[in-house]
Design brief:
- The complex is a heterodimer of chains A (381) and B (126).
- Chain A has 381 residues and is of the alpha+beta class.
- Helix content of chain A is 22%, strand content 32%.
- Chain A folds into two domains: 255 residues, 2-Layer Sandwich (Gyrase A, domain 2); 118 residues, Beta Barrel (Elongation Factor Tu (Ef-tu), domain 3).
- The longest helix of chain A has 11 residues.
- Chain A is globular, with a radius of gyration of 21 Å.
- The relative contact order of chain B is 0.26.
- The two termini of chain B are 14 Å apart.
- In chain B, 19% of the residues lie in helices and 35% in strands.
- The chains are: A alpha+beta (381), B alpha+beta (126).
Chain lengths: 381, 126
């Protein structure tokens, strides 16, 4: 069965192009991928991200659990601080990437990818006592407002206080709106995050996103989502354009951000992705020994950006060549709506990974010239 | 979703229009909508013969790459060069300015094996 977000009916009414994604029926596009992409870069867009997994880790063991579960030093986060991190398998492979926020001294909120909701919850549960992990995903909706005008939109709806946040900081913001509603559902969770959201008195605002633009992600009760969506895209000025998963993908690709399940799929380590900064070596996280061994051995493939000459578009699975040898594989590719040029992300042998290196990509039997670049492909104005 | 009455269709979302002993082909409104913004088209070679079901063109959108199959067998006599500069014409006008190629057909009877507009409407409603 496909899950539907609380905004499903809004999407249908607007004539969105719906697709299945990670067990959810989600909008791929509204006005068109390229026009939505441009709206986010130039002004602002609103994304229904209610499919994302929301998992709470709480109790006296919570600090120890997050230290063990995540590569980054979530266990040292200040209250309200959000951090991007990886969760690894014992072999050092990335199980998923996520943003984890410290809610209280002994409570953390992990926002992971929809398709990894169960695997991530299972790992966390295995690290702690009964009741320390609460999956509140089906009780929370989320809307991301992203783009240069996102600040004006979020402050228009929730007041100036809501946007006084540095990047990767979060806060609960009181809803001073008539659309205060609660889920009225039992069993969501006992943690502070869930109780705050469920009360209908607060929304959870974080200054995070997946577009490279300034932006905010807002977690709200399921039943309040249509009212917020309406205020963001249809009421008042400035307003956000509704954005589907298609533009979400091209926006993140232009920034070189990883896509779970595509740029890694249980087969790549954090070192290979080049996201070394999410590894803090001074704590004993799952997968650490495998990473130490890989680092010592060196000579592993590296995640790179590639710009492609000509009009052909690189895609997942295409071979990357250096002369006559295969040196890597494309994991994500598109025609950049900003650059109007083919761009790709993928893994290549260490010897072929230096920025500026000239390579080729085999596109349906013909070679397209490509050049290694260090993402982002698009710099902020 | 537009499905003009004077065209024939395939289950893979190509359209074909008889023009004397030639057939003009393209992709349907349904197909362009599924593909999203089209950014590049690899057109067939003029003078080359294709069998029904052969890959005739490759259509690249922001989202994906898709093969377009020959709805009927024939030799390509004309391709829509304008798509090299403006591939988005397929999104805007899939049955008009977004046509892909004209084939000189060897076996006109193949046209009868294609779907009619009502059959194609039922096919896309599934």
């Amino acid at each position: 069965m496909l899950h539907r977000t609380p905004l499903y009916q809004e999407h249908v009414t607007m004539g969105a192009h719906l697709v299945e994604f990670a067990g959810w029926e989600m909008p791929l596009s509204f006005s068109g991928i390229v026009s939505e992409h441009e709206a986010v870069r130039a002004s602002a867009g609103a994304f229904d991200v209610s499919h994302m997994a929301n998992i709470v880790i709480r109790g006296p063991n919570a600090v120890e659990m997050v230290s063990r579960a995540f590569t980054n030093d979530i266990h040292r986060s200040e209250l309200g601080k959000a951090k991007y991190t990886h969760m690894l398998t014992e072999k050092g492979h990335i199980l998923d990437d996520m943003i984890v926020t410290r809610i209280t001294d002994d409570e953390f909120l992990c926002v992971a990818n929809a398709s990894m909701r169960k695997p991530v919850s299972d790992v966390l549960r295995a690290l702690g006592p009964e009741g320390a992990v609460e999956d509140i995903s089906m009780h929370c909706a989320a809307i991301a407002i992203q783009g240069p005008k996102s600040r004006e939109i979020v402050s228009r709806i929730f007041g100036d206080g809501a946007v006084e946040l540095k990047p990767f900081w979060t806060k609960f913001v009181e809803i001073k709106k008539e659309w205060k509603v609660t889920n009225g559902a039992e069993g969501g969770g006992h943690g502070v995050a869930y109780q705050h959201i469920e009360s209908g008195d607060y929304v959870f605002v974080s200054r995070t996103g997946y577009t490279g633009e300034e932006g905010f992600e807002i977690i709200i009760p399921f039943r309040a989502a249509p009212a917020l969506w309406y205020e963001a895209i249809k009421k008042g000025e400035p307003r956000a354009a509704p954005i589907g998963l298609g533009a979400r993908d091209t926006l993140r690709l232009e920034m070189g951000y990883l896509l779970s399940g595509q740029d890694f799929h249980g087969d790549r380590t954090t070192l290979e992705t080049g996201y070394d900064w999410v590894i803090k070596w001074d704590h004993d996280f799952v997968g650490r020994h495998a990473l130490e061994a890989q680092k010592a051995a060196g000579n592993y493939q590296r995640f790179v950006g590639l710009t492609v000459e000509g009009q052909k578009v690189p895609r997942n699975g295409y071979k990357i060549m250096d002369g006559g040898s295969v040196v890597g594989t494309v994991t994500s590719g598109t025609q950049s709506p900003t650059l109007k040029q083919g761009i790709a992300l993928g893994y290549v042998d260490a010897a072929a990974a230096a920025p500026g290196k000239a390579l080729t990509i085999d596109i349906r039997g013909a070679r397209s010239a490509a050049k290694v670049v260090k993402p982002p492909f698009v710099r902020k104005k | 979703m537009k499905v003009p009455d004077d065209l024939k269709y395939t289950e893979k979302h190509e359209w074909a229009k008889a023009e004397g002993d030639k057939v003009r082909v393209g992709i349907t409104d349904f197909a362009q909508h599924e593909l999203t913004d089209i950014v590049y088209v690899e057109l067939p070679t003029v003078g080359k013969a294709y069998k029904k079901g052969d890959v005739l063109a490759v259509v690249e959108s922001v989202k994906s790459t898709s093969d377009m199959f020959a709805p009927v067998s024939g030799t390509v006599v004309e391709v829509n060069k304008a798509l090299e500069e403006r591939p988005e014409a397929i999104n805007k006008d899939p049955y008009g300015g977004g046509w892909l190629a004209v084939l000189k057909v060897g076996a006109p009877a193949e046209m009868h094996s294609l779907l009619g507009p009502d059959q194609y409407r039922k096919h896309t409603a599934k």
